[in-house]
Structures are given as structure tokens and as C-alpha cells.
Amino acid sequence: MTEEMVLTPGGLRPRSLVHKVEHGHRISSAGERLRTLDSSGQVVADHGTLITRPRGLPLMPLNVSHPPPTAVPALGSGWITFASWANNTGTPVSRFATSWVVPPAPATHSGQTIFLFNGIQNSTMIYQPVLQWGSSAAGGGAYWSVASWYADGQGGSAFHSNLTQVNPGDILTGVMTQTGTGPLGHSYDCSFTGIANSALPISDVQELTWCVETLECYGITKCSDYPATNKTRMYAIDLATGQTNPVILWSVSNSVTDCGQHTLLFDDDSAGNGEVDLWYSASPFWTSGFGSIGSGQSQDWWFSWGGNGDVGPQLIQAEPLVTSGELATVEIAESRDTNGNLTYHATVHNNGPGPVYFQWRGGGR
Amino acid sequence: MSWTSGHGTIGPGASQDWWFTWGGNGDVGPQLIQAEPLGASGELATTQIAESLGSNGFLTYHATVTNNGSTTVQFQWRGGGF
User: Fold this and answer.
1) Taking the alpha carbons of A244, A245, A249, A255 in that order, is the dihedral positive or negative?
2) Nearest to A363 by CA among A321, A319, A300, A298
3) Model confidence, pTM
């Protein structure tokens, strides 16, 4: 008889591989076995061998298990859009916190499940405080709820804390902290600030190195199955390695764009004011190109589109992605070549006292 | 979405810097910001539009207006985004 498959962050897996971790218990992977330990370190349950994967690549989204579509048309599933940063500083991540507001409910209900989280992973497991709409192996329904998860990819185990219902407009702060390092590995804690029994401590694990801000979905059949808002701001990002806040430059991956979903960077700060925006639909303006500009400098950038290049009058503006002085767009121009192709041009000037990392935004009508 | 904001007076040959803020994290996308004369005037030029990200994660917009005409001008700001 085929075992029932259930949904978790990371996709489908057999129900027998999903375990709730009671308050006060923790997961240990000492000796490459996954065990639940009680507060005194005694083994409560042995979940078998930890399936280690080759180092060098993050577990997700390469190991998402996509369920077969249950409705037609089915839109994309899995990791829809995300921002990631790999810690190559040589010092383990000691804290990774993010705040976000629980979005409005989706306008339509198609049995979809939506996961929103900040997370940190290695090649084998992912650790994540997860906001969930819909049902998963932890429970839930047509409402928002939160739990901490520690999960493998396809065919592997997944562990979760207690699931707690939350409401649209609630402000969540998902926090992961390194609590220790020993000969058997690293220890971490994960919870939602102020939400009882949301903690899921782990110990004796391989260092967690890839940090992500992610929108993950299953069972989406139409764009109105996404939350009834244009985006969720993942803000107040506080990311530390040891005692310092490193310079971070997020990378964006837009894996599913059937409703215009995408991630936009807003602030690369790592000391409590960072922000990454996860969009459920197309933004009303375009973004293009990243650059750095020193204090007092000007740069000329050119923008081109398909066809004869003409997209009408365009507002083009440089947006700073780090704390800055004034970053002024001092000129916007159009130029037509002898072949009749139109090219747009803008000049940015950094009036501030320090170098600035920036992107271009713009639009027309 | 277009908007108007703020009234000012500027003398001939003078420049003024104005700042514009919105709620939340201050981000309302790229914004066209332009000074509009409210009386007879020479050229009232918006010479610069800038964005500035504060250490608190708040985005502020900034514009500079220069009165290229020969008389003092009352004006207001108009703008819009997408």
C-alpha cells in the first residue's frame, strides 16, 4: 500500500517522515542520525540516518518535491521567488532575523498552500520560521498560521514546532540564532518572537550558510490564489556573523513568473534595517541593472528595448540600495541612430559622502 | 497616481531644495517631480530629482527647483509614479 504523501515546506514527503517536536525537545544530528532529545538530552525518538548530500550547493530549491497538479490550469509551484545570500565570510551566521506583516487572505480558495519565510540552509537541511496559508502536514486550513521547521528535501525528514494561528496585520519576526558550537557541530534556535511554543532548537548540525527570503507555494490555480495584496515586505533584516554585521548583497531568483511574481531588493543593510520585497504580481515599474558609484561621481547608463527601441517617454531614476546621501538622476535623454533605433540614456550623480550601491527603476504610460 | 504637494515662492536666479516623504518605508517607486508656476513666470526648472536611503531604512525623495526667469514666482510641486 502506498504511503500517504503530505505537504511541507520543500514539497511532498511521506507522512511517516514528518515529526512534530514538542516544546522543550530538540533535534540532534550527532553521528549523522536524526534524533529527538528531551531537555536533559535523553533520546525520545530515533528517526534514522541523516541523508547527507554533497556539499557545495544549497539544499533548496534544487530538492523541492513538486506535487502533481490537482487542478487545471495549474500555475507554478515550489520556490516561486526568493532572495539569497551565501555566507563566505569564514564566520558562521550567528543571527538572522526578519519581520513581515501577515498579508490579507487570498481572494480565492483553491486548496492552495503558501509559505513565506526567512531561512538558512546547508546542502542537507533547511531551517526556517514559516508563515503558512492553507494546510500542511503540521495542520492549518484557510487561515494564516506559523511554525518553525527543520527539513530535508525529497524523500527526507521534516520536523516542525507547534502550529499557531495568526491574523492578517499581525507583525511577525522570525529569528534564527546560533546557540553554540562543539566538536559534533553547531547548535541553533529558531522561533517567532512572542509566539509561544514556536521554538524548534537543533544541535550537532553542519553549519548553516545560505540565507534566504522566500515565497513558496503549492496548488495555485489562478493569480487570485495569492494573498490579496501586491507584495510582502521582508524587513528589519538583521544578519550577523559572529559579532559583526557583514556586507551582504542579495541575489534574486524569480523561478515562477506566471502572475508576474518577483523579488525586489530595497535595502541591503544587515544591521536591522535590511529589506527584500516579495511581489505576488508585476510591479507597476521596471527595474534594471545594478551599479556602484563613488562619492561625487557621475555615471552614464543606456537602456534599450526590443523592436525599434521606442517605448514612449520614460521616467528613469536611480534608487540607492544602501544607506546613502542624495543619489540624483540629473539627465534623461533619448537618442536615435541611423537605423532608426531609439536608445534611452540617464546620468546618475552621487551627491552623498560615500559610495552607493544602486539599481535603476523606471516606467512609462 | 498623480499628486500635488507644497507651495513655495522663489526669487529670480534662486534655487531651492525640497524633500518629499511618504508612509511605510517611504518607497513609492520612481517618481516624476516637477515645480509648477502658479502665476506669470519665466522658466521654472526642476533641475534634479534624487532619492536618499537613510540608515533607518527609510527612502526620501528630493528635488531642486531653479527660477530661470526675471521675477519672483509662486509655485507648487506636482508629481506622480506608476
Assistant:
1) positive
2) A319
3) 0.93
Enclosing domain of residue B39: 2-80
In angstroms, the CA A318 to CA B62 distance is: 12
Number of domains in chain B: 1
**Facing residue for B53 by CB, picked from A283, A320, A329:** A320
Q: What is the pLDDT of residues A10-36, one digit of tens each?
A: 999 999 999 999 999 999 999 999 999
Q: Which residues of B touch A276 (CB under 8 A)?
A: none
- Our CA-based measurement puts residue A348 at a distance from the nearest CA of chain B, in whole angstroms, of 9
- Helix, strand or coil, per DSSP, at residue A146: strand
Condensed to tens digits (0 to 9), the pLDDT of residues B1-53 reads 799 998 999 999 999 999 999 999 999 999 999 999 998 888 899 989 999 99
**Nearest CA-CA partner of A310 in A338, A336, A284:** A336
Please report residues of B whose CB lies closer than 8 A to that of A274: 57
Q: Which three cell numbers stand for residue A123?
A: 546542502
Question: pLDDT higher for A138 or B1?
Answer: A138
